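Lecture 7 notes: from sequence to structure.
We start with the chain below.
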Amino acid sequence: MAFRPEVVHGNCSLILFLFIIICLTINETHSTTQCMAGKYDLTPISAWDIWHLKTKISDKPVHFSINPCGSLPNGICSSEHVSICMSDDTNTATVIGNFSETLEPKTFEHKGGFRLDFQGGICPSASGSKRFYNTSINFKCGNSLGSPILLESSACSFFIEWHTTAACDRVDHQAVKENRCYLYDNQNKKHDFTPLVKQSSGYLAVSNGDYDFYINVCRNIQPEDPTSSCPQEAAACRIDSSDGSSAKTAYNMGAPVDREFVHLDDNKFSLYYEHAETNIPGCNNHNPSTTITFICPREGARIGESRAPVVTSDYNCQFQVEWQTEYACETEMLTSHTCVLDSDKYGIDIDLAPLQKAAGSNYHVKTTGYDYYVNVCENACDSKPDAGVCQLATPDVDAVEKNAGSFGNNLQTLSYVDGELSLTYKGGNKCSSGFERTSVITFKCNETANVGSPTFITETSCTYFFEWHTRYACHEHPTCQVTVGKKRYDLGLLDQEGKNWVALNSDEVESGTFILNVCDKILRDETKNVGSTKCGTEDSACYIGKIINI
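Predicted structure tokens for the same chain:
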């Protein structure tokens, strides 16, 4: 049964019944808004009013403005009571999600989270009874407030995925206060810092002071060893030793405030924390604050190595921290029409070929009412030789298999954006609505899952969503840091691109060559080091002569 919201005019702007989105405004000048979707609390998301999603559709830039809990401010879209608006580079705005429509969350049975469906204005590309734009947002459990990303789109339908703590069934360490953790630069390229958000403890910054300095990104540090003495609301924490003893005293050097990231230049972005207290030792009656400057480690046309955060100044507890990290670099959508995705610039090398089964073989996924047969970059059922996913209605014995998405003729797309790896099959058999069936498989890195298998998540507008945990979706983000006592040493500068280190022979070493690499395996290349191909594929150090794996 569907329920429609009742609109109440006056100080209360909107009330929705049952487990539909609930919004309650306290007064006209200062509002405290609670936003619930069934058992899920979206209030931390609603606090930021407008969420932005900028991307390209058919190589044309588009900008989505999203407020899942209420109406967008007047002037953003062409009408009032709009939750999702899409605009293009000509500033033509299209209503693709009305707030006044039914907003009933659909819970994902197997993986947790939920889906909200929005109906927009009339779609001129549609035919028959499907006359409106439709937008679905799949909310899934994440480690932060997250951000919306466009997973798939068609002429009249848009599918957005949003990983957020608001969609988690349980959050062990709820944030005291949290910043939105991404931004778009002047070229509309996204810089996403959410992978740096820690649910517990924090990052130890390199410093020359007689203290340990810990930070978290976009939220408070959860007090847990080694930050158990830090104040719960602190996002930056200074831990002092008392007279050289083991006793520790921790101070709040800044908490998240209602500020966005600041775009300093193409490679630098800053995040600001502050704390209103003047009687902290060493602060000389100043309120402590911490400014973290994130730097993209750009090396020509490629992204270089990340480094540990470093305290560059602590005068009067006005801490300045510099952090060279790949997450300060722009994220771009990488796509391929094969099962291989690689990028030297971003250090990504993904090959899903090990997941592929022989033609006609498949992974069987059972749901209520339908069976799905899934393969990776190969046909999934003999009756539909071009289908990457087949659908069969059950228990109808007379049902025939339907092509739920094709893998050939550039109809399949492997894409990587915002850390999300997905494989899309388009061009399947038409549904009764006239739309072609489409399947979207989202792959999750899981080092212990080996090959893994797909799980059905949801279906909307003739598009079927699956999730697949596998180690073949992983790619490494190596760091090379060593901690000795209170000191942290970054050895990443010793990493050599495309060559090995060669050690000088001593009197104790017989004639031969000793080669090694720091933070990586040695390069087995005869043109660089004769005999290196005889070393083991996993070696980081090798003596060429006796071929001893160190």
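Points to note: Residues 58 and 490 are 43 Å apart (CA to CA). The chain is about 0% helix and 40% strand.
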